Amino acid sequence: MENLRLNVALLRRRVPNLTKAARSVGLRPATVSNLCTGKIPVGRSEVRTLVALASLAECSLDELIIRGENVEMIETKIKTLDLFAPLAKGGTVGLVARPGMGQLVVLAEMFYRLRTNGYVTVLLKPEGESSEINDIIDYIDIVTTSIEEAYEKIATAGKGKEIIFTADRSHVLSGDVYEIQERLSNIGIDHVTTFLVDLKGTAVDEDLPYGPLETLWHFDAELSARRKYPAVNPIYSTSSVLEGAHIDQDHFSTQQRAQKLLRRYRELCSLVKVQGIDKIPASELATYKRGERLEAYLTQPFYVAESFTGEKGESVSLQDTLTDVRKILDGSTDSKEVEELTNIGRL
């Protein structure tokens, strides 16, 4: 099928409050979100859904649906992100987490890695007191305090440089983020990758907390409680990069197999908590054990946390991650203890 995807940038500009707008025409916000991130391919969506979105954006279907354009991935060398929810270059990524789940540590690590690769990092500080934001200031090149200042700094730095722009959800609700994205697009600066965070932790309770996104990183309370970092949920996190036409088929099939295993593993974990591991059917025991090993493998030491953990930061290429995950799925690591796979780089 022809490579199709939603024009997410257009939706962001035309329909700022997409959650309310979607409900007003009978669309589920979760369905719209999944279409934007590619979890539901455009080719498999209902025609009435696309027509309704085009109506909300006051555009034609030809404007709403982009054909023949690939979504480029920024390889972070963070295993769980690259495998399950790759960062879309020039797109918008939303982080959904409550305080204490590690979203700021992931942000700091992202900035550290991307700056090393030549990206310029820009932060629009949230209004009011946000002392926690100081934890990532050291990894930011340009700190701004107003939307106008952010625009001017990005417009200047964006000439020949790749930009990482970060803002709090408060600037999404006010419309400032959409305004700056449109203004930059109008002057030809389209290579800005935007990170949206929710310092107050209220986004967890919203169906579509940031509006249309190319990438969604959904943090997991249980992973965080068990200190399985980065605590990014591999089931609910997703990205438009994962639409079949945009990535290598090997990546897509490995991601699907890994997600299926982890989904079943989580179901079995619920059974174990209540009844104990002895109640797992013999036919499912291998699934449980491999899920446990895969979850452990997806943990990873960060460079920005070296002084706190005493563990050296690790980078793992996407190709190495795919190779390692296939080994776990196929049973090549069945003889290894879970501890041997925890907080490592590659196998």
TrEMBL record:
Name of the molecule in the record: ATP synthase A/B type C-terminal domain-containing protein
Ranges where the ATP synthase A/B type C-terminal domain occurs: 246-311
Presence of keyword Translocase: yes
Keywords: ATP synthesis, ATP-binding, CF(1), Ion transport, Membrane, Nucleotide-binding, Translocase, Transport
Similarity remark: Belongs to the ATPase alpha/beta chains family.
Source organism (scientific name): Halobacillus amylolyticus
Membrane-spanning parts: none
Subcellular location per the Swiss-Prot or TrEMBL entry: Membrane
